[in-house]
Amino acid sequence: MATKLPKVPVVVVGMGWAGGIISAELTKAGIPVVGIERGKERKTEDYLMGHDELRFQHRTELMQDLSKETITHRNTLNMRALPMRNYGTFIVGDGLGGAGSHWNGQTYRFLPYDFEIKTLTEQKYGPNKIAPEYTIQDWGITYDEMEPYYDTFEKMAGISGETVELYGKRANPYPTGPMLKTPVLEVFEKATTSLGYKPYMVPSANLSEAYTNPDGISRAACQYCAYCENFGCEYGAKADPVVTVIPVAKETGKLETRTHSNVLRLTKDGNRATGVIYVNTITGEEFEQPADVVVVASYVFNNARLLLNSGIGTPYNPETGKGTIGKNYAYQVSSGFTTAFFKDREFNLYAGAGALGIEIPEFTGDNFDHSDLNFIHGSGIRMFQYGARPIANNVVPSGTPSWGAEFKSESIRWANSFLKIASQGSSMPHKNNYLDLDPEFKDAYGMPLLRMTYDYTDQDRELVKYMAGVTSKIAEEMGADIIDTVSEQAPFNVNKDTNTHNTGGVIMGADPATSAVNSYLQMWEAENVFVVGASAFPHNSNFNPTGTLGALSYRAAEGIQTYLKQGGLLV
């Protein structure tokens, strides 16, 4: 029997970027919030001298323990799903800050095209451009409506960047200038410029200079130490909920955080949520936290799983196309990249930062003509200098043995003489790519695991082939001696694929029949539940999702305040 606690105005499940922003905005408005986080408390001091590749990258200390809670995966509906047992692909954060503590910091806006993708695609290419098996839809909001929220997020996080002409209009420039352009990035810049493209420095949450944000939070500049992804930042230079929004919420005295607390399900009465049930992961005690508003702001998978385990919303059925919870799960494609090897050139690959990169905009979204192509949308063609780390850095030309004396000598031969031209492609939703509850496997608390049914589609494979031609041409222009291009998209493997960006499952839109939440991320079927995060994306763009997640979180916080005052579904 769960111990019932006193009722609160708002309970927030998950204290990453979404939960942190919601908590900060509500508490600044004087609204008490209880924030529940299944992991432990974290602060910048925890990462001092934390450049431990084995501990954080390979043993994934900041991530969810897959022996206690994971997902299952199958490629098709007629396969048996099996649990994901290691982090070969996406990594799920655990603890205060969530994925916002271990991310790289690449902070793009989605394109105007993204938010009205179905309408704009059909207007330009006709109604037959989108095949019926692709469940592509508009988002129920436009870029112009999103722009102020993007601006707010970027000012809070201190995003470092430069304006790009082919992207949407901006009310303001980035609050800080772009990061340093290194010799590595200059190689890409020279080659792409000579090919007629317009390279730009990637917008970065790794501060290019010292910065104080509108909430009075001051942070130091990036030191280019190369320990960003999978690591917390010991300098506080990387924007992280723990050093930005959560301290602001705590300073109000209106936020109570409960760590080591894993929410199992939402409680409900009819079509309204009444609170949450959570377990203290240290003592095993169960508690019921009643609330007027429940904000589900955990990771993509857990957002959908909590609703499904709680019986809130209508589960998606791929056979009928009806229902919305679990619909339009989307990933991203990373094949189509090229590795360029140089026999007589060496680069300093061991310094860097998670968002130290350069990119061209010409192949993103609908910035190029798709009339004669068997896909829509595009890829970010980019080069990053993350900073190579010694344990996992063994890049060799294709055809090299994967072990033995030749592998060792070739690893040394090319250790500082290769560059990667990456392609990060969009992911369009398909009727058979979705999330539901696994009928067989359960977590450590006896709750059904989330089951992912997902594989790459013809759309993905065609996009990869096209982008492979682009990246290989850039490598040629760079003067590479050996060019290795991955031009075919293999079937999805949950234990090997390496893109970390998951979206969908609780998608937004203007129609309750095809979407789970409205443009304020308020559930159509349970008006006092707001589901905040990348789970709201109806498709995945070619850009990293955090900037859009942050913008939507600010809009949701605005909607929650309105709902607390007047109730009802927001328009």
Automatic annotation (TrEMBL):
<protein>
    <submittedName>
        <fullName>GMC family oxidoreductase</fullName>
    </submittedName>
</protein>
<dbReference type="InterPro" id="IPR036188">
    <property type="entry name" value="FAD/NAD-bd_sf"/>
</dbReference>
<dbReference type="GO" id="GO:0050660">
    <property type="term" value="F:flavin adenine dinucleotide binding"/>
</dbReference>
<feature type="domain" description="Glucose-methanol-choline oxidoreductase N-terminal">
    <location>
        <begin position="221"/>
        <end position="329"/>
    </location>
</feature>
<comment type="similarity">
    <text>Belongs to the GMC oxidoreductase family.</text>
</comment>
<keyword id="KW-0560">Oxidoreductase</keyword>
<feature type="domain" description="Glucose-methanol-choline oxidoreductase C-terminal">
    <location>
        <begin position="429"/>
        <end position="552"/>
    </location>
</feature>
<dbReference type="InterPro" id="IPR000172">
    <property type="entry name" value="GMC_OxRdtase_N"/>
</dbReference>
<keyword id="KW-0285">Flavoprotein</keyword>
<dbReference type="Pfam" id="PF00732">
    <property type="entry name" value="GMC_oxred_N"/>
</dbReference>
<dbReference type="Pfam" id="PF05199">
    <property type="entry name" value="GMC_oxred_C"/>
</dbReference>
<keyword id="KW-0274">FAD</keyword>
<dbReference type="GO" id="GO:0016614">
    <property type="term" value="F:oxidoreductase activity, acting on CH-OH group of donors"/>
</dbReference>
<dbReference type="InterPro" id="IPR007867">
    <property type="entry name" value="GMC_OxRtase_C"/>
</dbReference>
